[in-house]
């Protein structure tokens, strides 16, 4: 059963002026005491104003209303078949870059630049090469927008569905509009899950994280897969919620998710990486871990 109506209005599909408004909002929520100040000094290259705030609020109102357990199952059944497209990885980055941010073309980085800045920051700090690859790939799932998915089914904080929503999730007050909120099968602390069942047995709200995790499953070490799958699960990795769903393996893996998060949030920089210089390294890295073509 489709839990959400199929005919969303244009505003409901794209409440954000661009996807980066969500990232900008995360920086407001989780400012980095070190690098935010220096980045701002370089240039006020991002503005977070009342418009952004309203867009983000509206974005979460819709996200929290329509991300039901049934909605997620429908998306998983559709997208985890990976039968939509197949292309060489470097074409995939170009495809992803069709997500053009037209709000401020002078100052906004495209998706590939964000990925490269993230991976380069990880590389600079001497982490394993598979983590550099995670930096490069972590937002590849945003291509879902190019398959006409609404923004709120691609980005935004993710959270477990099928059990009670944590009130530490951003704008959690909007969950009262979600049909699962008043469904006794889903609205207890554990809902359909068993205590300590482990996140691998928990269905997360649908978005770019879960999608890219399935894309790279079996290709990189477990820590990297956790980074991909849970990088937007802020109520877990930043707020410490949902302990009752975790098993020891999740608790062990949390350190990898925490290690990755600052590179995602705080590596944004107005300086564009010199791709021609970096290309040989990344071609070798991608060839080491990924197949010649990626399926979407
Ligand atoms: Fe992401
Ligand atoms: Fe990111």
Kindly describe this structure.
The protein has one domain (10-295). Helix content is 46%, strand content 2%. It is an all-alpha fold and 296 residues long. It has a two-stranded antiparallel sheet with strand order 1-2. α7 (111-124) packs across α12 (248-266). Residues 114, 138-139, 264 line the site of one fe (ii) ion. One of its GO terms (cellular component) is cytoplasm. It holds the Pfam family MIOX. Keywords: Cytoplasm, Iron, Metal-binding, Oxidoreductase. It is found in: Cytoplasm.
SSE arrangement:
Blueprint: H1 10-13, H2 20-29, H3 35-42, H4 50-66, H5 69-79, E1 86-88, H6 89-96, H7 111-124, H8 129-137, H9 208-216, H10 222-230, H11 234-237, H12 248-266, H13 275-289, E2 293-295
Helix pairs in contact: 7-8, 7-12, 8-10, 9-10, 10-12
Bound molecules: fe (ii) ion (2 copies).
What is the alpha-carbon Rg in Å? 18 Å
Number of helices: 13
Tell me the series of helices and strands, N- to C-terminal. Answer: HHHHHEHHHHHHHHE
Give the strand content.
under 5%
Would you tell me the overall average pLDDT? 91
Q: Sheet with the most strands?
A: 2 strands, antiparallel
Q: What ligand species are in this complex?
A: fe (ii) ion
Q: Strand order across the biggest sheet? A: 1-2
Estimate the global geometry from the Cα principal axes.
globular
What is the percent of helical residues? 40-55%
- N- to C-terminal separation? 24 Å
In total, the number of strands is 2
Oligomer: single chain
Count of the domains: 1
Q: Uncertain regions: pLDDT < 50 for 5+ in a row? A: 40-45
Structural class: mainly alpha
Main location: cytoplasm
Cofactor: Fe cation
Subcellular location: Cytoplasm
GO molecular function, one term: inositol oxygenase activity
């Amino acid at each position: 059963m489709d839990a959400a109506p199929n005919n969303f209005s244009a505003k409901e599909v794209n409440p954000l002026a661009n996807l980066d408004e969500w990232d900008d909002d995360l920086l407001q929520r989780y400012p980095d005491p070190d690098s935010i100040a220096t980045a701002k000094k370089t240039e006020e290259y991002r503005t977070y104003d009342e418009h952004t705030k309203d867009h983000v609020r509206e974005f979460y109102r819709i996200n929290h209303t329509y991300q039901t357990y049934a909605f997620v199952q429908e998306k998983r059944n559709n997208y985890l078949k990976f039968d939509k497209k197949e292309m060489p990885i470097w074409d995939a980055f170009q495809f992803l870059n069709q997500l053009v941010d037209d709000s401020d073309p002078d100052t906004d980085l495209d998706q590939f630049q964000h990925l490269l800045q993230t991976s380069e920051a990880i590389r600079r700090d001497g982490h394993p090469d598979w983590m550099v690859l995670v930096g490069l790939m972590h937002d590849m799932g945003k291509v879902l927008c190019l398959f006409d998915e609404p923004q709120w089914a691609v980005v935004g904080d993710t959270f477990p569905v099928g059990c009670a929503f944590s009130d530490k999730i951003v704008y959690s007050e909007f969950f009262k509009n979600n049909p699962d909120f008043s469904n006794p099968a889903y609205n207890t602390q554990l809902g359909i899950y068993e205590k300590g069942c482990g996140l691998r047995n928990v269905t997360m709200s649908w978005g770019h994280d879960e999608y890219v995790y399935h894309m790279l499953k079996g290709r990189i070490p477990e820590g990297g897969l956790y980074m991909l799958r849970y990088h937007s699960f802020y109520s877990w990795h930043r707020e410490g919620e949902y302990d009752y769903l975790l098993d020891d393996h999740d608790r062990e893996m949390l350190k990898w998710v925490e290690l990755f998060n600052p590179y995602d949030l705080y590596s944004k920089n107005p300086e564009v990486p010199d791709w021609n210089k970096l290309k040989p390294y990344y071609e070798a890295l991608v060839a080491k871990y990924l197949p010649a073509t990626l399926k979407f």
